[in-house]
Batch of 2 targets.
Target 1
Amino acid sequence: MTICIEKLLRGPLKSAAPTAFSLGFILATISVGIADEPQNQKQLKNLNKIKHIIVIYQENWSFDSLYGQFPGADGLANSFDTIPQLDKTAVPAYSALIYQTPSPLTGSPLVPDPAFPSTPNGKLALISNNSLAWPLIPYDFTTYIPANSLTGYIVHRFYHEQLQIDNGALETKNGDMDKFVTWSDNPGLVLSYLDATNLPEGKLAQQYTLCDNFFHSAYGGSFLNHQWLVAAANPPWVTPIPTGWQSSYDSVKKILADNQLTFDGKYAVNTTQPLLAPFSPGTPIANRLLINNTNPSQPGYTPNIGNRLDDAGINWRWYSGGWNDALANNETANGELFQFHHQPFAYYTKYAPFLTAPTMDYSASSPPQLNPNTTGPSAHLQDEQNFFTDVAMGNLPPVAFIKPLGPNNEHPGYADVVTGQKHVAALVAAVQNSKIWKDCVIIITYDENGGRWDHVVPPVRSDGWGVGTRVPAIIVSPFVKHGAIDNTEYETVSILKLIEHRFQLAPLSSRDADPKIHDLTNALGGLESEQDDD
C-alpha cells in the first residue's frame, strides 16, 4: 500500500509540537483518515528505463527514532504494545518491567551525560522538574539538547540485537521488542528519538517516497550489514581463531560475550578489520579478514554484487569519503573518523587495494604497496569527491554506492544527524542538477538501528541471520510517486535484488533468491510499459 502525505503536511500537524502523551492520539487520528485512500501509482513494468542506481548508505538509526512522527507513516502512534521493557536484573530474570528511563550516558568508558538532567537515583529527569524521573516511554532528546548535538554510543552487536528483538533465537521468547533497554549498555538513549520530518532527508521523504517497512538484513552492526549490502551473506572466517574471538551466551546467568565471531567461530559477525585494505591502527595481521571472491575451489568463497556486475560487463563504483587519505595513512584517516569496517568491497580478494598485508600502521614515509589493478582512476573503489566529478562530467557508472566519511554519516557517538543529512542532501542535489537525473533511482537508507528501539516486529528469515530492526529508507527518483509512503516489506537485500532484476544478474545467496523478498519495484512507478532498449 502507498499513502499520499501531501495534504497531511498541509494540516495542523506540520506546525504542531505535541507532547509524548498527546502524540499517539493525534497520529492515530490521521492514520485512520488516510489508510484506505485510493492511489494512482503505476507499477514499474520496464526497468530498462533506469540507467543509474545510486545507494547512499548512512549510519545507525531506527525508523521510529527519526521518522516516528512522520505524517501517515507507521510510527510512534502505533508503538504502545511494544514499549514495555523487561528487567533482567529481576529475580527471576525478566519477571518485572523497567518503569523509568535511565540517565543517558556518553564517552568511553560510558559515564552520565551532563547535558541530560538526572534525578538523585540516576534516572533521566523531566525537564520541568528535575526531581521527577521520565517514565520509560519514547522521548524527543531535542527537549534537552540541540538536534545537531553529539549523543552517546549505544551497543548494537549481532547477538545483542537477537536478544533485544526477543525473537526466540537465543532463549525462550517473552514478547516482542521488549529487551532493547534490557540488553543495552546505554539504556537511557534506547527510546530517544529526533523528529527528522523537516530535516534535509525528511524533506526529500516528503517530496518523494518514504518506505516505512524496511529492515536491515542482518542482526547486529555496521560491519555485518555492509557485507549484506554487497553480498547478502556473512563473511566466513577461515584462518586460526584469535583468542577470545568466539562469542558465547549463558542463558541462565544472562551473561553474553558478543565477540567478533559466531558461537562456532565460522563467521565474522562483529567489527573486524580488513587484511589487504586500510585498517584501524594497531590491528595485527592475525586479526584481519580477507574474503575469497576469486577462487571457488578455495575455502570461504563468497561472491558479491561486484562479481555479478563485472561478469555482465556493467561498470560500478563504491565512493567512500576519505578513501584517498586512508590509502596513504591509516593513522591520519583514523583521526578524520574514516571508518575502516564500512568498506565492504575492500575485504575481497578481487577488489582489495593492497598487494601485501601491512604488518604495522603506515604513512607516506612507509606506504603500503598498492595493487595497480584495484587502485587508480579506473578502479571500482574511489574517493567520494570523485562522485561529484563523475556526476558533473556525466561519467557516473550504472551502479554507484556512496559511503560518507564519519562526520557526515549520522552515526551517534561521533557524528550528528543534522550535518549528515545536509551532506546527503548535497549528494542528491548534485544528481538532480545533472543529466542523469531523468533516468536514475537514489536509495537513501541506514545500515542498522544503532541500538535504538523500534516498535515494528521484524520478520525472521529461515537462514538465521536476520532480519534486524526497521530502519528508514527514502527513494528519490523521477520514477517514484511524489509525497508517498510505501508500506511494502523490504530489507537491505532488496537493494541487491533491484540491481539484479534491472541488470538480469543471478542471485548471490538464498536470501536474495527468495521470491518473498521484494526488490523495491513496488515503490517505483510512472514508467510506460512499452519495451525499451537498454
Target 2
Amino acid sequence: MSATFRSELTETCHRGIRLRYSDNSVFRWFYAKAPCRWHGRVTLHFEDVPFGTLLPAGSWTHPDGVANWLWRMQAGRAIPPPVVCRTRLGGFYLFDGNHRYEALQEYLGEAAGDASIRVAVLMAKQGYEFQYRYFDTYGTYVLVPSHGAAFTRKLWPEQEPANPVRGIYDSRNLPLRAAAASAGASR
C-alpha cells in the first residue's frame, strides 16, 4: 500500500469545537486489522468530508466503547480518522469507526449537520473496486476484481429496504437437486 504520511496529528475546528486526529493510528489499524486481501490492492487518502455523508455500517456498538471515544474527544485527545470507502451515490461507508461515529454525533451535537470530519478513504487500485454485497443478515462493501463487476448484482444500501423480505428462491439462492443413485452403487 502506498500512502504518504502527513504529520502524526492534525486538528480541525468547527464552531469552536476542536477535534484532533492521529493519522498514523489508521496505518496501524490497516496493517493489523484490515482484511489481508486489501494489502497491495488499495491505498489510503486522507481528506475532510461533511459529517452527513458518512454511512455507518449498522453494526452493533457497545455503549462503553462510544463513551470512551466521547471522553477522548472531550479531553482533547487525538482519535483515528474513520476508515471509509466512497459509495456510488457520493457517501462514505464506514469500515472502521462506528463507535467514533456515534461519539462524534454526540460530541458535535447540533453542529454535526454542517461539520467536516477527517476520514481515511480507501481507494481501490486499478483492476479492483468496492461493491456493496448483501450477506443473509447484513450488507457491506467488499473489494472485488473490477473485471467481474459485470457478472455480479450490485446492491447499494440506499436501495435496500429497511427490513428486506426475501423469497426462498431469489437471485442469491440456487436450488440443488440430489443426483440419482447409480444402478451399481451400494447403499
